[in-house]
Model the fold of this input.
Amino acid sequence: MILVTSLSGSNLIPVASVQQASCAVSPNPAALDQLFTVSATGLPSTVNLIITFPNKTAATSPISVSSNGTYTLTMSSAGSMFPSEQTGTYTYQFVGRIKWPAGTFRQTYATCSANVT
Done:
């Protein structure tokens, strides 16, 4: 959280605050086929999620963020793409608008990874 203040005499008066988006994975690392949870906070209402699997295949989709800026996803390596049950690093990128067909974006809100062993 960043606190922006205004100087009034010798007192600091808060005038605005900005919450940085973040995400975390639990448990991390996770065993093959074990469920793990990806949780993000501080997200804006319009977000896309890019999941990159250990074999570098990626899945991109718009997601529904709750009104308080949170998003939670439960996954396991059994849900990997082509082939399933991959060990390695799963990366979760919460990004802004994606331009197609190139799949480019300008804004990354949060990134986290799950290590599956």
